[in-house]
Every structure is written in C-alpha cells, then in structure tokens.
Amino acid sequence: MATPAHSLSYAGCNFLRQRLVLSTLSGRPVKIRKIRARDDNPGLRDFEASFIRLLDKITNGSRIEINQTGTTLYYQPGLLYGGSVEHDCSVLRGIGYYLESLLCLAPFMKHPLRIVLRGVTNDQVDPSVDVLKTTALPVLKQFGIDGESLELKIVRRGMPPGGGGEVIFSCPIRKVLKPIQLTDPGKIKRIRGMAYSVRVSPQMANRIVDSARSILNKFIPDIYIYTDHMKGINSGKSPGFGLSLVAETINGTFLGAELTSNPQGQGVAVLPEDLGRNCAKLLLEEIYRGGCVDSTNQSLALLFMTLGQQDVSKVLLGPLSPYTIFAAFEELFPDYV
Amino acid sequence: METKDQKKHRKKNSGPKAEKKKKRHLQDLQLGDEEDARKRNPKAFAVQSAVRMARSFHRTQDLKTKKHHIPVVDRTPLEPPPIVVVVMGPPKVGKSTLIQCLIRNFTRQKLTEIRGPVTIVSGKKRRLTIIECGCDINMMIDLAKVADLVLMLIDASFGFEMETFEFLNICQVHGFPKIMGVLTHLDSFKYNKQLKKAKKRLKHRFWTEVYPGAKLFYLSGMVHGEYQNQEIHNLGRFITVMKFRPLTWQTSHPYILADRMEDLTNPEDIRTNAKCDRKVSLYGYLRGAHLKNKSQIHMPGVGDFAVSDISFLPDPCALPEQQKKRCLNEKEKLVYAPLSGVGGVLYDKDAVYVDLGGSHGFQEPDEASPTHELVQSLISTHSTIDAKMASSRVTLFSDSKPLGSEDIDNQGLWMPKEEKQVDLKTGRVRRKAIFGDEEDESGDSDPEDDEEMPEGDRMENSSSDETEEEEDAEVTSKVYMADKGAKRQRLEMEEDSEIDLPAFADSDDDLERSSGDEGEEEEADESSEEEGSDAEERDNLEPKTIGKGSKSGLLHSNGLSDRLNLEKTMKKAALTTSDSGHCTAEEAFASEDESEGSSSLSTEEKDSEDEALVRKKFPKPSQAVSGQKRASESLIDETSDIEDLLKEEEEYKEASNYSTETSGALKWKEDLSRKAAEAFLRQQQATPNLQKLIYGTVTEDNEEEDEAGEELGGLFRVSQPARECKYKADSLDCSRFHLEVPHDWDLEEVMDSIRDCFVTGKWEEDKDAAKILAEDEELYGDFEDLETGDVHKGASGLDTQTEDVEEEIKEEIDSSAEESAKKKHLDKKRKLKEMFDAEYDEGESTYFDDLKGEMHRQAQMRLKKHRWYKKILKSRDPIIFSVGWRRFQTIPLYYIEDHNGRQRLLKYTPQHMHCGAAFWGPITPQGTGFLAVQFVDGTTPDFRIAATGIVLDLDKSIKIVKKLKLTGFPYKIFKNTSFIKGMFNSALEVAKFEGAVIRTVSGIRGQIKKALRAPEGAFRATFEDKLLMSDIVFMRTWYPVSIPAFYNPVTSLLKPVGEKDTWSGMRTTGQLRLAHRVKLKPNKDSLYKPIVRQKKHFNSLHIPKALQKALPFKTKPKTQAKAGKIPKDRRRPAVIREPHERKVLALLDALSTVHSQKMKKAKEQRHLHNKEHFKAKQKEEEEKLKRQKDLRKKLFRIQGQKEKRNQKSSLKGPKEQLK
C-alpha cells in the first residue's frame, strides 16, 4: 500500500517519454521504478534526466523525485505552462527525442510555447528535426494546430557526438483539436528531400542526391532534393552528413525517411552513395507500409485523436510501429483519464 | 414480426379535427380562404419604413438565434440507465407521499417504507430512480449533482421556503437539471380567488428562479392520505415523456447512484478492530461516461478510494423486451429498491429480511426481477425436496448442499442454458475456431501464444460464470451470451432442462470435490485468511454471506438476460488475493498474505495439467457462491494461482505468462483481442504478430515477475531470472520503426508492389484519367472491358459487404463481452478514522501523504458571497466547498486583483463584488462551478449557501500578497537628506532595500540611499523636501502569503445513523473562542475611546491702526468710547426729604395707588358690561333675524299659495290633465 493508489506505477525505463507525457496530459502522477536496475550503470541516463528537466521547464508546479541511484523516479505533473524556454539537450540523443514529446504537449500549454533546443539535430537513433519538420508538423496542421506561430526552424546543425545544433520550435495553443478524417492517403505526387553535410566536403551532399535520385526516379519524376551545407558556427561541433526524404501525396499525407552517417569515430565510414540509396529504399519501405500518417508520427496522431472530439476522428495507419503499439494500446487507452 | 396483422390506421373524415386538417391542407396548397389578413388587406401590411422593417427583422432573428443551442451529442446508450428523479422540498411538504403515489401509479405496488432510491420501470424505454432529498445540505448538494429531474415540492399554503432556494442555487452551480415544481397543500385555501392568487404568485416567482414557463404542477388535495390519482397520473406522464438536455459535467464523468450496499468485511475483524479496513460492495447503474476498473473514485461524504474491481451485473430492473406493444403489462412494471427492501432482500445490521414481492409474487420463477427468484429459492428451501424438485430446477440441488451452495446449483442450472443458446450462435463458434486456428498456427513457434489466446478468451467471456466456460471448453463452444433477447433463452432453458441436468451433475461433483479440497486446504493452512468450507457452514448463520450468495444467485439467474446495464460493485478487499492477481503491471500488488492464501488454494490444482487449469475455473465459482468469493474474484484467483504454479514449477512459465497477461488485460484489451482474432480470420497472415504485439505480455511480464519476487517475500520469495521478452523494460525509447527484414527494393516485383502508390502509377478504375476519358468518348465502348470492370466492381462490393457483416458481428461480440458481467471488489486503501490519530500520521508515506500528493494543487476561483448570506466571509476561516463531486473543507484566502495584476490579500470578502479565492484542494477542471457553505451541521433559519463561483485556474505560481508598511523616524535632518532609524534592524536589510521608494505621512517622497554604520539599521535617505523631526517615514512593501494546505473531505456519511447531519469539521477561531469562552484581548490602540475635544479659544480680531484708517467708515470698527464717569460737578445731589414731606409723599403714593386700583376695577367692570351688552345685542339681532326670516317665510308661502291659486284659476284646461 505504499504507493498512492492514484499514481501509476511502472518498472523499467522503456517508453519513459510516453509515460511522462501522458502523465502530464492526464495529470496523474507516475512512479517508475527499477530503471536499469540490473544494469552495470544503473539509473537514469543523462538524456533522460535532461528530458525530465525539460518537462520541469515547460510545466508549473511539477514535483520530481529521483532516488539516490536514479533507479526510481516519481513524477507528479504540474500545469503545462509554456512560454519562452531554452533547453540544452543531451548529446546522447537527438533533439528529435525531446521534440517528439514537445509536439505532444505544446498545443495544450497555457501560453504558447517557444523553445530553443540545443544539441544534436540529426542522429541515427531518433527522428531528426528535418523529418519531424516535414512529417510531424503536417500532422499537427491536420488537427487544426497551425498558423504562423507553428514553426520549427533549424538554426544550426549539430551532429553526434559533438552536437552544437540549435533548433527553434514554436507552437500555438489550441483549446480544441479538430477531428480528422484521414482514410485515403492518396497517391504520391512529389518527393522532396534534404541532403545535409556539415564539416565535410560540400560535395558529399551532391553525391547523396545523385544516388538517391537514381532509385526514386524509377517511380516518379518530381523529385527535388535540396543540399544544405552549413558552415562556421552553424555547422556544429562534429562532422557528418545525411539525407532526409519526404514523399507528399495528393491528399496531403507526408511520409518520411532518413539516414545519417555514422558519428565520427564510431563504426566504419559510410559512403554517401550508399547512404543515399539506402535512404531512398527506406522511403520506399515507408511508402510500402502506407497509411495516412507515417510510422514515426502514428502515436502522435493517435494521441491527438484521443484528446480530440470523441467518436468522429478516423485515420488509416500502416502497420503499427512497436512504439505506437505501446503508446496507443498499452498506455493511451487503459489509463487515460 | 407481429406487426403485419395489425390494423392500419384509418384517417378521420369528419369532426372538428378533420375539418381543421382539411383547412390546413388547403392552406398549404395556398388555396385557403381569405381569412388570412395579410391576403385580405395587403395594404395594411405594406412596408411603411424600411428601417423599421429591418429592425423588426433583426429582432426576430435575434430572438431566433437566442433560442439556438449548441447541438449536444447524445451519448446515452441504447438502453439508458434510469433517470434520477430527485423529490425535494422542505419537511412536511409531502415528499414521501408523492413518491409513494408515483410508485403506485407506475407499478400498482404500494411501498410502505421508502428508504434510498427506488428504481421503477415507467415505460417501454424509460426507467426512473426516484430518490427523496431531505433538508440536510449535504444531501441536497450530492443529489443536485446527480439529478436528471428535480421535483421541487412547494407548500402552497406557506410559500417558498429557504430549502427550495438553496436547492435552486446548488443546482445552478452544479449544472442545472430539469426542474419541475409541484405545489402541494392546495386544499388549505378556502377561497378560490385566494388560491388562484397564490398559484399565480408562486408560479411567477418560480419562473424567475428557473426559467420563464417552467412547468409547475398543482396537486390539489389529498384523498385518504394520498394525492388524487388523476393528478399523479398526469405528473407521471409528464415525467415519462420528459426530454433531458445532457449536462456537461454528468456526461463527462462516470458516476453511480448506489442503490444497494454491502459490507463484505469479516464481522470478526470488525469486532476485534472497529477501525479495520472494510470491504464494501456497492451496486448501482453506471451513468455518465465509462468507468474504468481500478480507477480512483470519490464517494461523497465518505472519501476517495480506489476501485478494487468492477463488474457488470444483469439488470435487476430491466426494461421490457418487446417494444412493439403499446403499454407495459403488469409483469413488466418492476420495482427495485433494495434499500427499502423491495425487489429482494433487505439488509439490516443484524438480520436479513426477505421480501415476498408483494402482489406480484406469482410471477417470480421466470420473469420477475431476479431478486425475486432468489428470494423464492431461499424460501423454498424450507419445503420438501420433492416439492422443490417438482417446482423448480433452481432448488433441485439445494437439498444436497447448505443454503449457500444452492446458489451454485442455481448458477450451474442457468449456465448451460446460456451455453446452449450460445451454441446456436454462429458467431461465437467462429470465434472459438479462430483461436484454435491460431493455436495451430502459432503453436510450434512459441508456446506462449496458444496459452495466451484461450486465456484471453476466457477473460473476455469472463464475468459471472466461469463454469460455463469450462463447459464451453468441453463442448467447444466458447460463447455463452446470447445477443438476442433473453426471452428466447429462457424458453429454451425450459425445454432443455432435462438435457442439461446431467451435465450439471458432473459439474456438481466437481464442485463438491473442490469444496472438499478447499476444506482440507483450510485445515492445512490456517493462517490463510481465505474463508474456507467452514465459511459455507457459516453461511446459514450469517446474513451477510447469505446476501452474498443471493447476490451471486441474482447474477447467475440474470445471466441470461443480456441487458447491458452495468452494476458496479466496489469492494474493499484487504484480504483477497484476487487483487494481487488482478493487478495490472501498473497496479500495486496486494499484501503477501493474500497471495499465500491464493497459493494454498491453488495447490490442489498444482499437479493437474492443462485441463486442470481449465477445470480450475469451475470450482472457483462454487466457492464464490458458497459465500466467500465472487466469481470474478475466483477468476482473478486462478490467475494468481497460476502465478503460484509458476513459482513452484519452472516449466509452467508459459502459463504464468498468460496469467499475467490476463491479469493485465483490461476490458478494452479483451475486446481488442477478439477483434484481432476476427481480423486474423479475415485478413492476411502477413502481420501475424500484430496481435501478439498488442497483447504483448512484454513489459508487464517483466514487471510482474519482478514484483512477485519482491512482494511475495516471506515464504514464497522466489528469485527468477529476468525473462527475455520482446521489449525489455529498459529498452531504448525510440519512436523509429526499424524493420528487421527490409524488402529488397532492387527487385522489380518488390518495386512493383508500391508502384501504384505514386501518381505515375495505376489509378483506381473510377479515378484513372485515361479510363474516364475513354468512357466519355465511347459511351457504348468495349463491352468486354466494361463487363470485366463491372464484375470486378461487384466483387469488390461484395467484399466490402462481407467485411461489413463481419464487422457487425465483431461489434456484437464486443457488446456481448461488455455485457458479460465481471465481479469485483473495492479495495479501499485505508479508512478515514473517525478522529485524528497521532500515530496515523507517522511513518514515511501515510494515507494523508498520498492524499496530499493527489490533491497537491492550488486552485483559484472567482467567488462571490451570496447576496442572501448574512455574513461576510473571512480569509483563513475554514469553509466547506462543493466542487465537482466533492465536498470538502478547506482554508481559502480571498484576494482581489489590482489593476497592475497584483493579487492582494483581502481580510474579508467584499459585500457585493466578486473576489478571488485561492485554496489548496483537489484538482478540478477550470470552469467548474462551486458553492461554499460555512457549516453543514445544525439548522439555521438563514440561507446556508455562503458563496458561489467558478474555478478559474489551477496555477501553482499564484502569488497572493499583503501590504506591509515599514515605518521609521528621522533622527537627523539635513537639507533634503535625512537619517532614518527604526525601519530596519541591520545594514543587510537596508542593503536589500536600497533605492526603494519611501514616503512620509505628509506626502514627501524619497528614496533609500545607503545604510549607516550606527545605529544598526539606520540609513541615509533623500527626499524631495526637508523633513521635520515629527515626520514618520514609511515604505510600502508586499509580503507573499502562502495558502494553508488544508483539505478535509466532508465525511458526513461515515457518521452513525441519525447523526449524519452533525458533521462539523475544523472550527473557525471565532467558534473556538465562543466555545472556550476566550475573550480576544484587543489592541488598546485600536479601541475606540470617547473623543475629548478641547475648547477652542479664538483671539480677538486685531485690525492694525493704519488699516483701520484706510477703511471706509462703514467697515471701520465702531468702538464707542465707554461712558466715562460723570464728573462730580455734574452729578446731581441727592434729595433728602423732610419727615412731613415724606408723609405727604407717602399719602400721595397711597392715594394714587388706590385710585389706580379703582380705575382698574372700573375698567374691568366696564369691559364686562360691554361684553354682556354685546351679547344681548347679538341675541336681539338673532331674534330679529329669526323673526324676519319667519316673516319672510310666511310671506313667501302666502305668495306661493297665491300664485298657485292664480295658476289654477288661469289654467283650467290642464286641470283635467293634472288630474
């Protein structure tokens, strides 16, 4: 009986973000125990701690208790407050890690959120800022969260391990979400992309573009892949390059894919040609999966559907990603109050 | 079905109505007569002024738009819960009589004593729950929140009473339910006019309170202590046809008006420890939104609890099944009021009363409410076995067992019927098949799955009867719940009874065996708190357990009816292992004792194989019936059993796996599983592990295992190796979807698979531009092409159709799953003790800490003292708020927002203004209305609602400040600089306020500059002018005030009977002072003293000489020189007379006095004489006048006579006429 009946109790650090985000939205405290309890290096990692700090920044009156070893976390959410915030993200994870959760929370703040995030903009683990910009923001727009203030701007690019990127995200607030009816993804009418390279030869980006086009051209001629070579302070602290692709359908569905080079000093060097080709294939894979919301944003769409008007929203999804399965079915529906 | 033979409606061709209709019809056709003034006289209606026209148009439009409401989505289920009718009014107004009359009107049954809510079937589609609301403010608040319709009784002979207005105010705050006024005591008016006047007056007052045109009913008088039948009938009609607009709060929150309550705590525990944790089950219809299991609930007047378990129960007061006919027959007019002892069993403190069901006792065995059935069975145990055998199947087995087990039989009896019914159902069978398929398919790959599915299946079927499922397993039909009406089932049951019996015999054996086993278990494991077979024996003695048994009986007997209505049971189960078993991974686990108990129970099945696992389900219900457990508990139990098994035998891992899964499985999941199963059949096998993913035991597994290892502790601590599962608990938290086996996109066929996803690819038939063009061109184009296209289309259409059908079926299955009842407990965490207990608050995390954690929020509200409340409210005085569902006492701070956004503390609420109130309490959504009362105990003639308002914000960062003035005195004054002392105590303090603005009382502004060395706390300050030593310097500061963290739920219902309205929480300081006779010592300075004013002395006005000179004479001061002394020479000498002279003078004096006296007398006499003379004269005059008058009179008379005569003589002619 030690745990308050009202708070939810979990073990393990998986889906930490989802749990905390849903806890914040529903106002129920959560207790997460045994965070990497059997690990050699137990407790919360830096990036998780940073995430919790971020939550603390955007809320008002949150209570966070972490035990000595960091294996137990008690989070009692406060009010979503918003406002102008700056946050230095951990370089262990990309900014996408933080941004994904912010996307879930931002429309429900008390004051419109305008946040500056610093860290790694593109990495191999998390959806990069580019992809979120091209795929997640349209999802938000579908729910009526749009306007001039909905903006995601990449000021600086930072690649792992050094980081040094900077992103400005601002989002308006909405009292109610528009219900959606997305049942027909439509045909893909164009493919856009962004090949970026920082602290490497600008030629890399061009090579990526060529190789990616070689694959995609077989399907559709309307392809344009921008090259983005950032210099000086805007290029962050580590070298790297990558490609993010997005396919837009005639019905306004955006499907994204991306690939990034291995971080400096980790793994073998990746040829830009391979990267371009593989990324194009990933996009094809995403297209194969189909759905009106791409696999990265499934949980976001489901969350907003849950928070929106009852009964009316409809969305067609491709195969559910494991993350969505957890988010939607394990978390969202049973315990959403 | 039977509609065909009904007569068709025939139109009326004559009579006034028909004529009217004809007229209307003609008018519709614009052939109407010239009655329409507009047509007859178009000029009169011509547009005179465009402006006026526009205005009138606007006005009508405005009025129209005012009437518009936001459309409300009707979320009431097909069979809505009964409508809550609250009968409210001041005492002695006739509430109980009205309820009795209403019940009698609807059901033809007479309830003598009404306690608690009474549910009746009032129509084909409507049920009513009538509840009486007294004058206790707690009750009024609680009932106003749940009411759909309020019958507001008003004593017309007396007029409105405070209760009425209080209730109206409560309603306004908590969402306005429909309110209907009922005037009673109308027979006390003697004169009709008086009555009419009173009615009108009351009606108009009522309209201003509710809305203009609100319905007010008149109950004219009593006949034999009851209201007149016709009036009651009309009132009933009104109630039954009334439409309701859903209230936001009610529709968005699940709530239950419990119509029955059972304390399931072991009486022994209560005896030994009066404050032990209780286990209580509550029953009622769920209203509002969906209620989730294990959720936090609030019981008004009791406190906050967590639900241990929720389950569906068959509807005790079901609507009639046939909708076709016009009215209800007598059998369908059900009453259900367990608290008043109707419709079943009345539970008292130490006895159980059985109700015979009144005049409709005859209908019991088959169609009366299930409780009747139960009752019947209970009664029938006293008759002989043969009689029982003959009379009913229900009692067939009762002879073999004690009372409690009878219910088992009952249950057994009912279940197969359903089963049979089920068998007929194709859908169910299909589902079963699915799982079989699945097992086949996944069996080899991983053994978990095939275990999982059946278990999940069972969970879905779940609910009341597991035995069924056991049967199911044997018969290979999983389904037991019929989707079509229960009637059919019943019929079938009767037919199949003989066939069913043998099956039961089997099951019965099982039952016996299991119970026997249990008994052994009990002996072996005395420590376990589970009630064993001896509990069964106890059944006979204990009313409570009987009640339970009856409950289960009720459940099973009703199992047939597929009525969706949900009854909620909440039990506080400190002992039951079930909880631990049933906990999802997120839920806290129950204590170890419980699990021990469960394990002991499970040991019997330990050795058994898989079938044993299946069989387990059967014995459990028996236990449940025997009074120790509910079916659901047992179900849960078995899961925990399985866990135990797992602990003991490593090989049973898979079993545990699925057990955990089932334990984790909530209602929605079950549905999902079924859906998914359907999906399997229907859809491709491409994503075979989707389902598994969804039910993924996954994280839960891990957690539960871990917890089990931890929590079981003591005896059963088993350390288990962490099992590998798909998602590790500590896996990477990433939203990307990585595929293990990506497609090879270099292959042509793979590429082709998505080629059509692009605009360049192939389009659908109806969208392909080329096709459309072609079709346009040649209308009668290639026949074959079109044909194939058609065929294709048709096929696709078929496909969708079948899909639809499948979906429908699926939905049906879902609904049936929902129906499938599940038993439950409420595990209350702790019980609020009656008194504050010091040891209660010790330890690390207590209940109160939890409570605090839950209610950590500060809330801000806009509050206005009620204008009828006589006092003003004081900051920091405890006050009772009613917000949301809750009533609680808290300490608010009142504040007002200054124009610069500062929130300034107020000592008292303003009289006629809104102000802010901040308090510490439960989280309530913004925009929720609330009301405040100061006391809920006792009765006051005054209006009790102290304040009303709305929740504005839940901001924790609110800063309420109060003004603090620091004063100091100058001790050295230079020109504009002064040294000030006495404001601060140290240089540090001064440093903090450097640059702050200060001011003197006389208004000279200045600034703090710097601290001085001595004296301590003195500082240099500059001012805009030179100060005086007498000046006082002050600085205005704002000091933040913290909101007292006090939250005290009003636990009035925990008070013993009869004292429920005596709850008093924290007292105000004023009350405490009064109680302890402590007089406040006022500050002497703030006392009023008599004002002593010094006499003001004004100096004389002095005008300088020069000025005086310059003044005009008029304004010059005219100071007369004082008469000086007369000089001696001008002073006249005194005359001294001679004695003789003096004598003469004296004589002269005397003479003159005499003379004057004489004269005076004479004058008086003369005056008197004159008066008399005047009088006489007047008299004479009068007489003279009189004489003259008489004379004149005589004269005139003579004259008149003369004239008459003259006339007579002159007018001879008219003489005859005159005659």
Automatic annotation (TrEMBL), chain A:
One of its GO terms (molecular function) is RNA endonuclease activity. It comes from the Eukaryota. GO terms for cellular component: nucleolus. Residues 183-287 form the RNA 3'-terminal phosphate cyclase insert domain. It is found in: Nucleus, Nucleolus. The keyword Nucleus applies. One of its GO terms (biological process) is endonucleolytic cleavage of tricistronic rRNA transcript (SSU-rRNA, 5.8S rRNA, LSU-rRNA). Transmembrane segments: none annotated. Residues 10-325 form the RNA 3'-terminal phosphate cyclase domain. The keyword Nucleus applies. Keywords: Nucleus, Ribosome biogenesis. As part of the small subunit (SSU) processome, it plays a role in 40S-ribosomal-subunit biogenesis in the early pre-rRNA processing steps at sites A0, A1 and A2 that are required for proper maturation of the 18S RNA. Activates BMS1 by promoting GDP/GTP exchange. Does not have cyclase activity. Part of the small subunit (SSU) processome, composed of more than 70 proteins and the RNA chaperone small nucleolar RNA (snoRNA) U3. Interacts with BMS1. Belongs to the RNA 3'-terminal cyclase family. Type 2 subfamily. This is RNA 3'-terminal phosphate cyclase-like protein. It comes from Pipistrellus kuhlii.
